[in-house]
């Protein structure tokens, strides 16, 4: 898969350094993936969830969330947001999904 908008991750990781390692692992695994459906995503990341048109990834032992839209045909994962669990619970991200 290709990953778009990774600059959102870089910006987030500058403020939340303890997320860096887990986000880098997510990126490396995602770049190697050949997902054709959400079921394939779940096989790779068991804690991933689907909300509308977005996939929610638990990052760093459930401390952070990465929200992405995936186009399986073009093999593009477009990062929409990266946030702490507390920000995620505010549900503001949902309007994009």
Structure characterization notes:
With 97 residues, the chain is of the alpha+beta class. The chain has one domain (2-96): YaeB-like fold (2-Layer Sandwich), CATH 3.30.2310. It has four helices and five strands; from the N terminus they run E-H-H-H-E-E-E-E-H. It has helices spanning 7-15, 20-32, 38-44, 85-88; strands at residues 2-4, 49-51, 54-59, 64-71, 76-84. The chain has a five-stranded mixed beta sheet with strand order 1-5-4-3-2. The chain starts with a strand and ends in a 9-residue tail after the last helix. The relative contact order is 0.21. The mean pLDDT is 96.
Write the layout of secondary structure elements.
Blueprint: E1 2-4, H1 7-15, H2 20-32, H3 38-44, E2 49-51, E3 54-59, E4 64-71, E5 76-84, H4 85-88
Parallel strand pairs: 1-5
Antiparallel strand pairs: 2-3, 3-4, 4-5
CATH fold group: YaeB-like fold
**Arithmetic mean pLDDT:** 96
Oligomer class: single chain
Largest sheet: 5 strands, mixed
Proportion of residues in β-strands: 25-35%
Give me the secondary-structure category: alpha+beta
Tags for this model:
5 strands, YaeB-like fold, globular, alpha+beta, 30% strand, 4 helices, 97 residues, five-stranded mixed sheet
Quick synopsis:
34% of the residues lie in helices and 30% in strands. It has 97 residues and is α+β, with helices and mostly antiparallel strands.
């Amino acid at each position: 898969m290709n990953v778009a908008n990774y600059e959102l991750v870089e910006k987030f990781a500058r403020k939340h350094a303890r997320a860096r390692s887990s986000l880098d692992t997510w990126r490396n695994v995602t770049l190697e993936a050949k997902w054709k459906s959400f079921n394939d995503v779940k096989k790779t990341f068991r804690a991933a969830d689907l909300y509308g048109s977005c996939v929610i990834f638990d990052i760093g032992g459930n401390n952070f969330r990465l929200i992405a839209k995936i186009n399986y045909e073009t093999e593009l994962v477009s990062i929409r947001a990266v946030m702490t669990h507390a920000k995620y619970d505010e549900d503001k991200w949902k309007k994009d999904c």
